Amino acid sequence: MLPVKRLSHIVMESPDVLREVAYYERVIGLVELGRDGSAVNLGTQAGTLAVTLQKGPAARLRRICLQVDSNMELSDVDRILRDDGISPATQTGFYPGIPATRSFTGPDDVTIDIFSSVTNQAQQPGRGGVNPVKLGHVASCTQGLDPLIEFYKDVLGFRYSDSVEGSFVFLRCGADHHSLNFLGRPRTGLHHIAFEVQDRASLMDACEVLGAHDIDIVYGPGRAGPGHNLHVYHRAPDGYMVEIFTELDQMSDEANGYFDPRPWHRDDPQRPRDWKFGKDRLAVWGALPPADFLD
């Protein structure tokens, strides 16, 4: 099992890369960290890579990029993956600040990139926007939920955090409540991506940014049940949902088996569990998600 430590960034395909770049720079507040051919690397204003955009026939999640411990040799990554029947390819110079990755095709034809060492790029001012601190998580729909969850747990070391009716599963690889989540649905593909902001004031500022750009809020503001984060959702120009969030649950001590106590928790202690419609309060406050949210 590979001990993944964090979600680093994702690679998205878009039929209109320039339009998406403009959205990420002006609305989300990311900055360009460099280009590799037609691919545009975007990161936070602190210099942390978050999203790479490349040309494609439709909006699509193409790659998920995960970091293992910085002291881990990539030769050890090779050995562990081969023990699980995976033969990774080596890529160099693909992402700014990341000298090499080990890459392989994961479930649902999404490429997984694994790396250990990274050098953040220089800080630079953005063009306004939300200005997140990092890419927080990515959510996808899948027709093969159970084997996909087994893959991320057994091969990449993710842990179960919560689920909703057994079909909306939250997985963590560090202290954050989730870095990946998956919905069992009749379709396969991206559901939403999420950016973390510093605090609740920053979340309200994000709402003002969306309003200034005439972008509708489709869900929120509110505080979720699973994860207990404050959140607001809107749609990117390519049509997928983007979440802005803060105050996500943390499990700072895995040995305890529960999330760090917070005043809005309904369970004491708050342990990973399956939430039920009609029984559990899926929003601590705020409206429930729209009817098509889980589609």
Automatic annotation (TrEMBL):
Instruction: List, in alphabetical order, the Gene Ontology terms for molecular function in this entry.
Output: dioxygenase activity; lyase activity; metal ion binding; methylmalonyl-CoA epimerase activity
Q: Which Pfam families match?
A: Glyoxalase (PF00903)
Q: Which Gene3D superfamilies match?
A: 2,3-Dihydroxybiphenyl 1,2-Dioxygenase, domain 1
* The keyword Transmembrane helix is assigned to this record: no
Please name the InterPro entries in this protein's record.
Answer: Glyas_Bleomycin-R_OHBP_Dase, Glyas_Fos-R_dOase_dom, MMCE/EMCE_epimerase, VOC_core
The VOC domain covers which part of the protein? 6-117, 134-247
- Keyword Lyase recorded: yes
Supply the PANTHER family for this chain. BLR5325 PROTEIN (PTHR43048:SF5), METHYLMALONYL-COA EPIMERASE (PTHR43048)
Stated name of the protein:
Catechol 2,3-dioxygenase-like lactoylglutathione lyase family enzyme
